[in-house]
Amino acid sequence: MQTLQISPNILRWAADQCGISLDVLVGLLGTPSKMDDYKAGKLSVAQTETLAQKTHIPFGYFFLETPPAKIERSLPDLRQLPDHAPLSVDFFDTLDDVLRKQQWYQDYLRDRGAQPLSFVGKFAFRSNQAPAVIANDIRKTFNISEQDRLESKDYKAFYNLLSEKAESIGILVFRSGIVKSNTKRGLSFDEFRGFAISDALAPVIFINGKDSQAAWIFTLAHELEHIWLGESGVSDVAANQPNQVNLETYCNRIAAELLTPEREFMPAWEQTPNQYDLLSKKFKVSQLVIARRALDLGKIDWIGYQTIATASKSASKSDGGSPFRSYPIRNSKRLTNAIVANAVNGQTMLREAASLLNIRPETVLELGKRLGIK
């Protein structure tokens, strides 16, 4: 078996791209006794192919002497957690997939003479606008009231309501815990919680479905602020340390005001202080959102918030059920309907529609039937 000499710098770069250590990378090849040889770049063709397949890095890259030019991020990295994982190949593949879908939808809208959405970039980050003003503008644009929240069964129902309202006004909301349709490539919520792509025609919000279900609603609200401010970016939606002032802090405060208005929250807190479960049920948000609001309003300290945050951190469990239910959620309901309708009506090739939705051509037709598209 011929042994190749792969540059150790390339191996370290490949590990960084995947957000793992060099030891973990070469560990993918098995045979612990040869770990030192692997780290020195002494690999066979078959082993190099294995690394290419498992890291989703092109095979030819492993034969470069130095790492390729750094991949330019299409979105600003706004993550706040000091120990967040590097953005990996899984993230970039997901971003590329979403951008491809967004481009299709932009062309689709232009063909129909769509006009720019007035709420995108309506406010400026540096304008020092009070968070309540922007939160109220979102409520007005969504046509959503306190009664809507009260009538929602729980925070999951309230999340679904907000998501549907966002899509109804033209925002594409994606929620997925995997790369495209590959169930073996799960996204990491330690890496990112969500991202927003501000665009006047087709704004996008992506929510990492691997995050806990309780976290989805705040991530959605947070990314909405990015759209209203006209600021794209990747977020981990962490609570910021006291006295920090930046875009993410501002978005967090607006999101908190949107979900738990101060005029309602303060009396409720005074009546039932530190009763996170009761307040969570009242406002239809997670206990973590309640703790975040209490922190922002000076009702608890940073240590108290961290206690709740640590207890609430967990990965989401799959809802199961029919995959036909998950396709529109994974690909944005609004976008899915547009692509499937175009395919059923012969305006888009079935193969292209399937590629955009990461499903089979025959599945597009079945999905059309289930969505009632004729």
Describe, in plain words, how this protein is organized in 3D.
With 374 residues, this protein is α+β, with helices and mostly antiparallel strands. The protein has three domains: 3-63, 434 Repressor (Amino-terminal Domain) (Orthogonal Bundle), CATH 1.10.260; 89-312, no CATH class; 323-370. 52% of the residues lie in helices and 8% in strands. The chain is built from 18 helices and eight strands. A four-stranded mixed sheet has the order 3-7-6-8. A two-stranded antiparallel sheet has the order 1-2. Strands 4-5 form a two-stranded antiparallel ribbon. The chain starts with a strand and ends with a helix. The mean pLDDT is 89.
Notable features of this structure?
single chain, 374 residues, alpha+beta, 434 Repressor (Amino-terminal Domain), 3 domains, 4-stranded mixed β-sheet, two-stranded antiparallel ribbon, 18 helices, 8 strands, globular
